[in-house]
UniProtKB/TrEMBL annotation:
Residues 65-155 form the Sulfatase N-terminal domain. InterPro entries: Alkaline_phosphatase_core_sf, ARSB, Sulfatase_N. It comes from Octactis speculum. This is Sulfatase N-terminal domain-containing protein. Keywords: Calcium, Glycoprotein, Metal-binding, Signal.
């Protein structure tokens, strides 16, 4: 399960703001895997993380480690698992993707503030007011305080 969650987080984070929903697949009362479908909702994918962490804690599974990979200027075919030309050249990412969930559609942001806002909230930057510019340290505005961010979803 650690590899699945790590791959999910890598998929969500490394390639940008995806729009997929994630659902649980249960067998005999246990979560067997998470499946993605191309329906709107990166937020739903983020919201499944606490459920998984609760399941893991109650079943005696070792604590999960989240692998955070942020790649700049990465194209769709720049990793082996999505390119025939590079197959085998990124074995660790290929392995994580093979055991996890691959989210293959995204819209990358042009600036750091919109990208961070999308990453931390699971929402398009335009929906949280962070789509125009970079937030400078002395700026009188920022992410609305009512927005729930990734660390809040990860609390157990």
């Amino acid at each position: 399960w650690q590899k699945t969650l790590s791959a999910l987080c890598i998929s969500l984070i490394a390639l940008g703001c995806y729009q997929y929903s994630v659902t649980r697949v249960e067998q005999d009362g246990r979560i067997e895997k998470l499946e993605a479908s191309n329906q709107p909702g990166i937020l739903q994918a983020i919201e499944t993380i606490p459920e998984y962490l609760s399941y893991a804690a109650s079943s005696g599974v070792d604590p999960t480690h989240i692998v955070f990979v942020l790649a700049d200027d990465q194209g769709f075919n720049d990793v082996g698992y999505s390119s025939n030309d590079l197959e085998g050249l990124t074995p660790t990412l290929d392995s994580l993707a093979g055991q996890g969930i691959k989210l293959m559609q995204y819209y990358g942001q042009q600036l750091c503030t919109p990208a961070r806002g999308a990453l931390m909230t699971g929402k398009y930057p335009i929906h949280i007011g962070l789509h125009h510019d970079v937030i400078h340290p002395d700026a009188p505005w920022g992410l609305p305080l009512k927005e729930k961010v990734l660390p809040e979803y990860l609390k157990t």
